[in-house]
Amino acid sequence: MIKVHFKIVFVILIVFIPFISASSQTKENTKLKLTGNLFLDSKIVAKNDIMQAPELNLAVAQEKAGHKSRWLGGLFSLILPGSGEFYAGDYLKAGIFFVVEAAAVTTAIIYTHKGDFQTAFFQQYANQNWSVAKYAAWTLQHLNNLNPDLKASDYQVFKNNVNWQAMNNNTDFTKYNIDINWSELNRLELAIGDGYSHQLFPYAQQQYYEMIGKYPQFSEGWSKANMNDTDFHIPSSTDQPLTDQFLWYAHQRGLANSYYTDGNTALIFVYINHFLSMLDAIWSVDQYNNTLAMNLRLNHINVAGQEHLIPTINLSYNF
Hints:
Layout: H1 2-32, H2 38-48, H3 54-66, H4 70-79, H5 83-87, H6 91-129, H7 132-141, H8 143-146, H9 182-192, H10 206-211, H11 244-295, E1 296-303, E2 306-313
Helix pairs in contact: 2-3, 4-11, 6-11
C-alpha cells in the first residue's frame, strides 16, 4: 500500500514540475516586462538576473558590435563629404556628396586659374601701354585747367630736372617712369581735388592696376591718349568718353574679377557641401543604428516543451 502511494506521488511530480517551471518562467518574464528592443531589454534583464537569458546577452553583443558612432560619421564627412554616409552604409548619398565635392573643387580651381591667367594678361598689357610719366606730365601741363590755384613749380614730381614741359605725343615716356617722385605725385593729386579722387598706388601693386583702368583721372596715361587733350574725361580726338584703351583694359580687368568671383562661389559650395554632408552623416548613422536595433529581435521558440529566447538578425538589400 505504501509503494502505491509512493508511485502516485512520483507520477504527480513528474507531470506537474514542467508546468510549475513554465509558470515560473512566465511569471518571471511578466515581471521583467521585456519591450522587444534589445538595448532596453538588456538593461531590464541586467537589473534582475542576466543569467536568466544568456541568449539575450548574445543579441545585445551583436547589436553593440554593429553599432556605429554618429560623431565619427560626422567627422568623416566634415573632412571628406560622402565618407560619413559611406561609413553608415548609405552608398548612394555618399556618391552624391562626393560628386558635388569634386565638381565644386574642380570649378574653383579652374576659375581661379583663369582669373590668375587673366590678371597676368591685363597687367602685362598695362605695363606695355600705360605710363605714369605720361600721366604725370599731362597733369602738370594742364594743371591750370585742373586747378588754377596750383603752380606746377611747387611740386617736384619729376626727379633730376626732367623737362616735362617739352613732352608731347612723340615722347618715349617709358624711360621717364623711373624719374617719378611718387610722394610728390600723390601730394599733387590730393591738392588738385575735384576730378582727381584718388592718389596712385606704387607701381605693380594690385591697387595700382585697378586704378588705372577704373578712374578717369588716369585715362591720359595710356599710350594712345592725346597729350593735347584738355579734359581727361573727353578726349579731343574722338567723340567717345575716355580712350578705347582705357575702356578695353577696364573690361579685361573686370573679366578677371568675374573669374575670381566664380571661383570663390564654387569654394563657398565646397564649404557648404562639407557642412551638409556632416549633418547628413550624423543622421544617416542614427538611421543605421535604429535599423540595426529594429532588425535584431528575440524570437520565442518552444523546444521540448520549454520557451527559449533566440536572437535573430534580419538582413535585406534593396536595389
